[in-house]
Design brief:
By secondary structure, the chain is α+β, with helices and mostly antiparallel strands. The protein is 45% helix and 17% strand.
Length: 466
C-alpha cells in the first residue's frame, strides 16, 4: 500500500467517526494547551524576576569591595590589596569582559547661573560602553577624555538659582540641558553662592575647573541616573587637589568637597587613608555572559574580597518559585497524559469495531506494516490537529492573561515614568515549535500498542466477526 493511499485512508477512517475523533482531538488540544500555558506562566515569571532585578543594577556587573583587607582568605593566605595588579588578575578570570576601579566624590557644580551639589563617579573611560550605561544624547566617555563628563538624566533637576530670594526656591527651568551650558566644578561647597554673614572664609580660594558635558545618561535604574560620570584619572586628580586645598584651609571654613569612597589612594598618593597600601575600595567587574557571573563571584571570594551582584537576588527568587513552576508543569503533563490515554482508547475502540475490515485487508494482500502504519497515521493526525488547535488556544489564553493581568506574583515594576505592567504569560517561539513537534510524537506513542494489536489479529477470527 502506497503512503499516499494510507494517508487518505487514515483521514477517511477518522472522518467516519466524527464525534469520537472530535472529542479525542479536543482532549489533545486541552493537554497541549495546558502544557504550553503552564510553561508560559513559568517563563514569564522568570522574565519578570529578571526585569525586577535589572532595576537594581546590571545583573552582569559584579561590585567588588575591599572590606576584608588585612584579613585572611578562606585557605589562610593574606588578602592582597585591591590594586591595579589585582584588577589585571580579575581580567584573566574566565568569563570576565573587563574591570574598572571606582572613585566617588561629592563636589559643587555651576552651570550658567544655576548651582548644585553633585555626586561624581570616576571609572575607566574605556569601560563605559562595557558597563551598558545607556546614552540618550551626545556620546559616551572615550579614551583620551579628561575634563569630560556624561551626566545622569536626573542630575539637572537638582540645579537651583542661588541668587533667588531666600524665601523662594527657584529650580532650573524645564529642559535645562548641561550639554548646552558652560559648566565648572569646585571643591568649595560655597562656590557660586554668597557667603553667609559671620562665617569665616577659606584662606585660599579654590580655583574652579571647567568641565564639558558630552552626553546624557538614559534611565538605567542605577546610581548613574543621578550622578555625573567622569574618567577615573580625572576624578583621582580632583581628589588630590581637593585634599591639598583642604590642608591649606585647615582650621577655616571652606566647606570642602567630600570623598564618598576613599579609593585609589595607593595609586594616587602612595598611601591609603589609614597609612597602609590598601589599594582601591571598590571595583566593578563585568561578565561576558549571565551564566559566568556566579563562577566569577566564587573566584573573587576565594581571593578574600566581598562581592555582590543582583544575580544573587534572582537566584533566591528562582528558588522560591521553583516549587510553583514544577506544580504548573506537572498539571500540564498530567493533562496531556490523560489526552494520550484518550487517543489509545479511541484507537482500541476503532480496532474492535473494524476487526472484520482488518481481516479483509489482510486477505486481499495488505502487509502487516501497512496495517500498523494505517493506525499509526490515524493517531498521528489526531496529534497534528490537536497540536495546532492547542497552540492556537494557548496564544488566546496567553493574550487574555496578559490583557486582564492575571498573574501568580508581582508583575509590576516602578520606573521614573510610572508603574509598568509586565506580561503574566510569555510564549517564546521555541515553545511553539516544541508543542508542534511533541504533540504528534506523543500521539504516535499512544497509538503504538493499539496498532500492534491490529497487526496480530487472526484473519480467521477477524472474518468471523460480525
Amino acid at each position: 500500500m502506497k503512503l499516499r493511499d494510507t494517508l487518505f485512508l487514515s483521514i477517511k477512517n477518522l472522518w467516519r467517526r466524527k464525534l469520537r475523533t472530535t472529542l479525542t482531538v479536543l482532549g489533545v488540544m486541552i493537554g497541549c494547551c495546558a502544557i504550553v500555558v503552564m510553561l508560559s506562566l513559568g517563563i514569564a515569571m522568570e522574565r519578570n524576576f529578571m526585569a525586577q532585578v535589572n532595576q537594581m543594577g546590571n545583573i552582569m556587573q559584579i561590585q567588588v569591595y575591599n572590606y576584608n583587607y588585612g584579613g585572611k582568605t578562606p585557605d589562610g593566605k593574606d588578602i592582597p590589596p585591591l590594586d591595579d595588579k589585582m584588577l589585571a588578575h580579575f581580567e584573566t578570570i574566565k568569563g570576565v569582559q573587563g574591570a574598572t576601579p571606582v572613585m566617588n566624590l561629592y563636589l559643587k557644580m555651576m552651570a550658567g547661573k544655576y548651582v548644585s551639589h553633585v555626586s561624581i563617579i570616576g571609572i575607566k573611560a574605556e569601560m563605559f560602553t562595557l558597563l551598558d550605561i545607556p546614552v540618550i544624547e551626545g556620546r559616551p566617555l572615550q579614551e583620551g577624555d579628561t575634563d569630560h563628563m556624561v551626566v545622569g538624566q536626573y542630575v539637572a533637576q537638582n540645579f537651583y538659582n542661588p541668587k533667588a530670594s531666600r524665601y523662594r526656591w527657584e529650580p532650573a527651568p524645564e529642559g535645562f540641558n548641561l550639554m548646552e551650558e558652560k559648566v565648572t566644578i569646585s571643591w568649595d561647597m560655597n562656590y557660586g553662592e554668597k557667603p553667609q554673614k559671620g562665617m569665616p572664609q577659606p584662606k585660599v580660594k579654590a580655583k574652579p575647573v571647567k568641565v564639558e558635558a558630552v552626553g546624557i545618561v538614559g534611565q538605567s535604574g542605577s546610581e548613574y541616573d543621578w550622578s555625573v560620570i567622569m574618567p577615573f584619572e580625572t576624578v583621582m586628580k580632583y581628589q588630590k587637589e581637593m585634599e591639598k586645598w583642604n590642608k591649606q584651609n585647615s582650621g577655616s571654613s571652606g566647606g570642602g568637597g567630600r570623598i564618598i569612597y576613599k579609593s585609589a589612594i595607593a595609586v594616587a598618593a602612595g598611601m591609603g587613608g589609614n597609612g597602609t597600601d590598601q589599594g582601591y575600595q571598590r571595583v566593578i567587574v563585568k561578565a561576558k555572559h549571565i551564566d559566568d557571573v556566579v563562577d566569577i563571584m566564587d573566584s573573587i571570594k576565594e581571593l578574600g574580597y566581598e562581592c555582590y551582584s543582583p544575580i544573587q537576588i534572582l537566584d533566591d527568587m528562582k528558588k522560591q518559585s521553583a516549587g510553583l513552576r514544577q506544580i504548573l508543569l506537572g498539571i500540564g503533563i498530567m493533562s496531556f497524559i490523560i489526552a494520550a490515554i484518550g487517543i489509545a482508547n479511541t484507537m482500541y475502540m476503532s480496532i474492535y469495531e473494524r476487526t472484520r475490515e482488518i481481516g479483509i485487508i489482510k486477505v486481499i494482500g495488505a502487509k502487516l506494516r501497512d496495517i500498523q502504519r494505517l493506525f499509526m497515521l490515524e493517531a498521528w493526525w489526531i496529534g497534528v490537529f490537536g497540536g495546532i488547535l492547542g497552540v492556537g488556544m494557548s496564544y488566546l489564553l496567553s493574550f487574555l492573561l496578559n490583557k486582564f493581568n492575571v498573574n501568580l506574583g508581582n508583575s509590576e515594576i516602578w520606573t521614573p515614568e510610572g508603574m509598568v505592567k509586565l506580561n503574566s504569560s510569555y510564549i517564546p517561539i521555541w515553545l511553539t515549535a516544541a508543542a508542534f513537534f511533541f504533540s504528534p510524537i506523543a500521539s504516535l506513542i499512544a497509538g503504538l500498542l493499539p496498532s500492534r494489536r491490529a497487526m496480530k489479529l487472526s484473519v480467521m477470527k477477524a472474518l468471523r466477526q460480525d
